[in-house]
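New to this. Please check both lines:
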Amino acid sequence: MTDEIIDLDEKEIMDDLDEEENEIVTPEEEDEEIEEVEEKGKKNKNVKKTYEEEERNWEQVPLTKRLLEEIVAVSEVYGLNKEQTDKLADRVKEKYDSCLVEPGEAVGIIAAQSLGEPGTQLTLRTKHFAGSAEVSVGSGIQRMEEIVDGRSKAKYPTMTIYLDDEIKTDKAKAEKFAKSLIDVRVKDITKLIENFEELKLSIEIDKNKAKNIDLSMDEIAEIIKAGLKDFKSRQIDNTIHFQIEKKTNYIKIRKELITLLKEKIHGVKGIEKTLLVKEGEEYIVKTSGSNLKAVLKLEKVNFERVFTNDIIETSKFLGIEAARQLAVQELKKVLDDNGIAVDVRHIMLLADLMTYSGEIKGVVRTGITKLKASPFARASFEETTKHLLDAAFKGEVEHLTGVVENLIVGQPIKVGTGVVELLMK
């Protein structure tokens, strides 16, 4: 900011000199002008020097870089002088210090209590519906359990797909795109009629269902004929008839039919339903079912804003940091939906614990408990005998550093006042 002022002053000086270039100037006036210019230059240098000193002073303030930048930005917007800016920094530091955790604070148990106690107040209702087309969204205790346990399959996976500028405001195009996402298999829109006595086989296409997904009879018929290409076929209106030869192996027919009925007609694998929703000026697509990898490759999708509530899938394709952030958001959302206020730092601590190893580990015996170095800590959770026997076979050493281990042997735990080692006569 000060640099800009300096540049401006120099520019003004140059302009003044240009304007007066053509005037007749006496030697005395010229000397005066030179002195004035030199004085202004010295003044600007002093301002720059003060600013640099100030910057060095700021670096000594024990606040995060982002907070310091915000303080500087606020002081610029409101035109605060040095004294007022220092006062603001002091207030921010006071508030910042009050938010820090005391050394030896048992943050784990407090976070567990903060999340566990309101968890008993959550609804048992498994799902609610987002909109009239019934895109089910998991909520309540089941959703919280699913996240905390780090389950590989979400029970109600959903996606929110933002569209690119070309179609996001055009309802017809957005609707067509939403329909094109639905995973449709042959069995979803056809009816199979078998008559092995007369060596006949018919597949009837449902006209209404075909119309809903914007596909013609001929397109669907081609897919069906390609699936059973070994048999003679004849299409009458919306039914395709197949002729079976006497010597044909029925097991082979059955295998081919099962494969055909699972054949994909169109859409993205895993997406069962879609719902078009208007948010502000743009249309967005909400889905039941999730396939992040496939959706990110589609055209007409704003891939920077695509969102899935499946944490494991997010960690695979967007990395562990994105998964951690999603775990925090989803847990907070479940609690907020039930009107429960929990400090987000407790949720963040849990998310950190679940993701610090580089992959998602649930709060289960195969997850974070398995990673613990202490045999007693592992044994205290589940399968006690197994863990103790394993530790004995491997000759593991118990260092008694954690809370659980010290409780088991009856020593003071290293938390709170237990952190301090002080002898008093």
Q: What stands out?
A: The longest strand covers residues 273-279. The chain has four domains: 2-99, 102-125+142-149+309-371, 184-266, 375-419. Residues 1-11, 47-51 have pLDDT under 50 and may be disordered. The two ends are 60 Å apart (CA to CA).
